[in-house]
Amino acid sequence: MNRTNIEWDRHFAALADEIIRLREPGEETLCSLSAEQSDFIRFNAAKVRQIGVVQQGRLTLRLISGERHAYSTLTLSGSSEQDLAEATQTLRTLRASLRDTGDDPHLLFDRSSWQRTTFRTGRLPQVEALVRTVAECAAGLDFVGFYAGGSVLEGFASSTGSRGWYQVSNFNFSWSLYDANGRAIKTAYAGDDWDDAVFAQKLGQAARRLEYFSQSPKVLTPGSYRAYFAPDAMRELIGMMGYEGFSAREQATARSPLYKLNSGALHLDPRISVAEDLDLGLTPAFNEDGYLRESVSLVTLGRGTGQLTSARSAREFGLQPNGANAREMATSLAMAGGALPEADVLAALGTGLYVGNLWYLNVSDRTQCRLTGMTRFATFWVEDGQISSPVDAMRFDDSLYRLLGSEIEHLTETPELMLEDSTWGQRRTGGMQLPGMVVRSFELTL
Amino acid sequence: MLDKLKRIAASFSTDAHFWSIRLVDESIQNHEVRNDIVQPLHTSRDHGAMVIAHSDGGAGYAATSDLSAAGLQAALDMATARARASAAYSLIDFAKVPVVPGHGEYTSPSWSIDLPGRGAWLELLAQECAGAALGERIIERAASVQITHSSHSYLSSDGAQIEQHFRFVMPNMAVTAHADGDTQVRTLAGSNAMQQGGIEILKYFGFADSGRRLAEEALQLLAAPNCPAGIRDLLLMPDQMMLQIHESIGHPLELDRILGDERNFAGWSFVTPEMFGTYRYGSELLNVTFDPSAEGEAASYAFDDDGTRAEKQYLIRNGMLERPLGGALSQARAGMQGVANSRASSWNRAPIDRMANLNIEPGTSSLEQMIGGIERGILMRSNVSWSIDDRRNKFQFGCEFGQLIENGQLTQVVKNPNYRGVSASFWRSLAAVGDASTFGTYGTPFCGKGEPMQVVRVGHASPACVFKDVEVFGGGV
After folding, report:
1. Which residue in A115, B131, B235, B445 could disulfide with B211, CB within 3.0 to 4.6 Å?
2. Its pTM surpasses 0.95
3. Tens digit of each residue's pLDDT (9 = 90 or more) over B57-101
4. B170 and B308 fall within a common domain
5. A 372-411 residues with CB < 8 A to B
6. Is there a single domain that holds both residue B338 and residue B454?
7. Is ipTM beyond 0.95?
8. Residue whose C-alpha is closest to residue B116's, from B207, B186, B183
9. Structural domains of chain A ordered from first start
10. Is residue B356 a contact partner of residue B310, using CB atoms and an 8 Å limit?
11. Which residues 308-367 in chain A show a CB within 8 A of chain B?
């Protein structure tokens, strides 16, 4: 980490300026940056299993000449001289490759000029203090968890004059507390400003919930059960749809698990409204094609009303681009709440399954939007509005059309904001804001 | 690169009692033709180094893309500082972890033989894409190949010097058919056609004419009934066996998972340390090996990312559980023998216990014998859906293609074939293992695990296998 304090904004701007200057007549360039400076700590048995720091930045350089284009992604070292040399060589290579490339009938990028900047600093814990705090607060607990904190940066610069910068410093700490029988409560503490007292309070609350596991588990057999899905469980259900259900490309090629909803062949309960909501401020407001991202109403009053449309899909299928990323995955889903106060959830459920978390979902029948997956972590049996016993992990296989359609009984009043915790490749931006949901029946299969 | 690293390391200033540097330099080329249109070229090059330091009994890491002498020294300082900061709270006393320094090299098969240029690839892909155009019900055809060159150099303070060069080739063909509100997709081996080597890999996976063949099958599935529900004998072809092995043998045998490291994310295991040596995992026909020496398989290598020399080992022999998937560190923690499987996805992630090549050894049955021995069953091929619980026990998997077996004969093709079961009992129902003629070798770059998350390449080779009395079912609500 020689360059521990890389000023990524200046470094990226200087690289982009030089790349733009190196254009030849008729060429346009689009540059995108993804970078992070992150601390990672894994805990097992309330002790440190792995601790480290990752600094990385990747530049994606796109060269466009007429209707031809090509991309290349390269790692940045933080050295102006070295990175510029590599970017210059990459530009030459891309230029040479275009000579052997035909016109791309689906090429589309934004030629306008805009400026957007988000810069949010946070107050993050010092890792030395954090490991001590965890050891003190989790003493006597089987605590296993993961802290990820630091800066996440996304940048864009085009030769048409657009510049975007998104830089936030934040943390996401999730942990699971296990009891002697191997059952667990999972909790997360995420945000911009760390507070030892808040962490201790959340940990204490989670520890007290372990008492629910003191009863013998209720053995469920496959069948239909009333159920409440906490927002964390909803994140898995709705998140699966965010993966490809709202993609314009998947819809146009009839592979979307929400194909029937999006094409108007069926509708959900009118209380269901879902949007890709940029106003949550969780993601950059621009994409790699140079478009400013828009909030998109995906489901309105139970009817499919929009999809996430990338520039390429827009040109291919005759649609309007709305700033979706190339894979047309949702990054900032928000679902409208209902009328059920959170305090009344157990009473509304009555007798049934309280599902705190779901795990490992996958589509089991694309056409019917049927999903399979497992219950995990805090899942309990509720009798007459009271948590009565834990439930061992159960498999479900059910249609989201049914759960969000004929079976829905209540949505909770105040949707909960949950920050994205993915670290595939690097820490991700985004998140979801979702309510809890009570359904009349939920199909358990194994 | 190793020589450059050695020169830099010679000037390191540190009081860490152990350090290692692992440098990864990886380039990827993607070529694709979709609906007869050449997709834009996308290449990438990713390079950087992971420095690990042990000090005061703690361990820390620092990942950097600054490969200058100053950059690597700074990374070493940072890793050492993290080791010290956590030493008093470390789960493991790293001062007591034995390290065996490895020396050697590895190179993928056909490494020195050049691959075709982009023009030749596109011609090949365009041919398959065009071959899949079998009418208006075929709504998408995509032919692609991904070529990855990855060089890894490893150097440590105790004298390890390792250089490994890999080349992965991953062809794919995906055809989507749609009519009357239904959609069916067929792909080349469930999109798991990956090996190390050269152009010969395309022939191995039957890429030539795959466009037409998969399009015909997709149309056949559109016209087919849903897979019936019920209890049937299940004949899994190797491109589904790979997923079955991966999820319900590979993950549960990862020793770091058994030791609880993954409980906050990827999960725990129904396997406990006491079960090794005494537990019957499957029928006597089940023989499972960890084999990093398999020629050209996706996760073949000579050393893992902790510098341990890799060798073939039996994990399950004649159905009995023998050995976990645990690298040197996990072996020391658990006091058990394991394998050389401490692996990282790239330079920016620290090694943990991973699968590599995890294979089922061939048996003695021909495919005809296996089909002929089934009175009421189903053949399934090409994985499309997978889900398993956090202890790796209750699973549900789906395939692209199913075909019923009645009275020893393949009969009706069925769509949306799924099956579910429990790992602990499923493998005991293994009733027949195919011979070498039924054997297939597959790979995927998408095995996920770890915090921070990592996806690594794994290979799985298997014959076709028959399981008795499995719950199968199809689509619909």
Report:
1. B131
2. yes
3. 999 999 999 999 999 999 999 999 999 999 999 999 999 998 878
4. no
5. 372-374, 376, 393-395, 397, 399, 401-402
6. yes
7. yes
8. B207
9. 8-211 (3.30.2290.10), 215-444 (no CATH)
10. yes
11. 359-367
